[in-house]
Amino acid sequence: MKKVFLSLATIAFVAAGSLTVTSCGGDDSVAPGPGPGPGPGEELTENFIQVNNDQEEIAFSLYAVHVDGAGQDAPIKEYTLEDGTVVAAFEFISHNGSAITPIGATSTWSTLLTKVDTSIPVGTTGRYVFPFTTEGSTLLGGFTTTMNDTDYSYGASAEFDVTELTYATESAAGSMTYTLSGTDADDTSITLKTNLKGAIEGMYSLNASAAKGLQRISPKDAKLTVRKSLN
C-alpha cells in the first residue's frame, strides 16, 4: 500500500457546456446499478476507472461533506490551509460496489474544497457552499484511485474537466459528467483515468473526526450517513 498525500492548488475549471446546479437535499434512495458490462476484450468508453490497461466499470457515485463526528447532523469540519484560508471539504466518489455504500474495492475520490464565509455564524445559511456554486470559492484538494488493493495519487499535471453537475434534491438523484486523467504522483509510468457520466447520490456526511488535518480517508474506513443540508 502506498502512502498518499493530498496536494492543494487552485482548481482550473473548464466547462465544455453549461454547468447546471440545483439546490441540494437529502436523498436516501438507492439508484440502480449499470446494466450488463462489456464483453471480454471490449473497452469501456464512459463510466469507468482505469489504471494503465486495467478497467473497472463504475456502478455508483455519491458526494459527501467532511463532518466532525457521527450521524447525519454532525457539524461540518472546517480546515485552515497554510495561507489561513478556512475551507470545508467535499468528496465526489465513484466506485464499483454492489450498493451505494459501502465503497467498493475500486474507487476514485475527487476532493474539492470550498471557502468558508467566516463572517456568517455556524448553523446559519451561507457559511458553507457547494463546489462550483459560487465564483472563486472552489479549490482542488486532490484525486486518488484505489484498485487491486493499491492506492494511487494523481500528480500535479492531472486534468479534471467537469461538463455537467446537478446536485440531488429530495425527490431525485443528481447527475455529473466529468473526465479525469493523469499519471501517478510517485510513478509517472502509471497512467490513471476516470470517466463519469450518470447519476450521483447525495448528500452524505463523511465522518472525519479521527483525521488530523486535511488528509485522505481510507475507503475501508469511510463512515457515510445521509445528510439533509449544509446548515
From TrEMBL:
Signal sequence coordinates: 1-23
Species: Paenimyroides baculatum
Keyword Signal among record annotations: yes
Protein name as annotated: Uncharacterized protein
Keywords: Signal
